[in-house]
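Hi Y.,

Following your request, here is the sequence exactly as I used it, all 380 residues.
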Amino acid sequence: MMPRPGLKITTILGIPIYVDTSWVFVFALITYTIGEQFAQMHPQWTDTQHWTLGILTSLLFFSSVIFHELAHSVVAQHYKIRVISITLFLFGGLARIERDPSKAHQEFNIAIAGPLASGFLAGGFFAITLLFPYSQMTGALAKWLWQTNAALAVFNLLPGFPLDGGRIFRAVVWGATKNFAKATRIAGASGKLIAYVMILGGAWLVFHGFIQQGLWTAFIGWFLLNAAQESVAQVAIRETLAGLSAADVMSHEVPTVDGHITLEEYGAEVLRTGRRFHLVLTDDRLVGLMNVHMLNSVPREEWAHNSVQAAMIPREKILWASPEEPLLRLLERLLAADVNQMPVVSGTENGTHVVGMVTRDSILRVVQTGAELGPLTPSR
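Below is the corresponding structure, written out as C-alpha cells. Let me know if you'd prefer a different format.
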C-alpha cells in the first residue's frame, strides 16, 4: 500500500508538497548540528546568530531538496506524466508520479534533471562565497549549502536504484535491451550492491571509532537495500498482472443492503456473512457503497441511531471500473484512492449495470499465486 504522504505545507506548480513525520526529526538534527558547527567555527558570534543561521540553513537545505524534486517533476510533466505529490522525508525528498515513463529517453531525462538542479544550486551558492567571506554569516551559510548541494548531486548519481543514478543506469540498459523489466532487475541488483557496500562501510567506520558517521552510512545503506528490493518486487507484480483485466478477477456476486437499515443491523450482517462491503439500494435504486471502514468511522454508540444511507459513500463519489480495464492500472487506482474494492460496471443498450466487484485482496491473491508458481515457460 502506498504510504500516506504526510502533512501538506504548500502547493507549487500544481504539485502538493508534504512533509513526512521523520522530516521533523531530521530538521531538528540538522539545525542542531549546524548551530554547533557555527558556534565552534565562529565563537565571536552570539548564540542568537548561531541558531538563527542554523535554522535558516536547514530551511534553505530542504528548499534545495524541493527544488531537486521539482526538477524531476517539471520534466515528467513535459512528458504528460502527472506528478501526484512531493514528500520530504528522512533521507531527502520523493516525487510520486502517476506512472513510469514509456520510453528510455524519458526516464533518462527525468532522472538526470534532479542532479543537474542540485549542481546548479551548488554553483549558485559557490558564487555567493566569492562575494562574502566565510567569517560573515552569508558566506558561512553559502559555503555549507554549496558543499551540501554538490554532495547531494554526486550521491544521487551513484548507479544504485532507486537513486537518480540508478534510474539513469536503468534508462541506459532499457535503451540497449529494449526490456524494461530486465533493466529494472539489473538496476535493482546494482542498487543492492551499493547498499551492501554502504552497510559494510558503515560497520567498518563504527569499528574504527567513527560511530556517528558509521551508523548514518549503514542506515542509508539499509534504506537503499529495501528500496532496491521493492523496485524488483514491483516489476514482478507488473509481469504477473500483465494481460489481465478486471473481468478476470472480479466476483460476479455483488452483495447489497437496504439503505434504510441501521448501522447496528449492518454490523450484524457483516458479522453473519463475512462480507466487508455492499452496494446500497433504496427502493431498488443504487444510491451508494457501504463498507467496514465507513462503519468504523461512526462511533459505536451511534450505530443504533444512524442508517447505512447516512454513513455510506454516495453514488457520485464511488470509483468505478470497466471489465476491460487492465488489472495493473486498476490496482494502482485502488492504492492511490486508498480503497479496498471497486464495483465493475458495463454499459449496454439498456443502460449501465453493475456486473461484478473487484477487491484489492483478489488482485493480491493473483500476485501471490504468481510468486509461488514463478514464470511459466511454454512447453515444447
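The chain is about 60% helix and 15% strand.

Thanks again,
Q.
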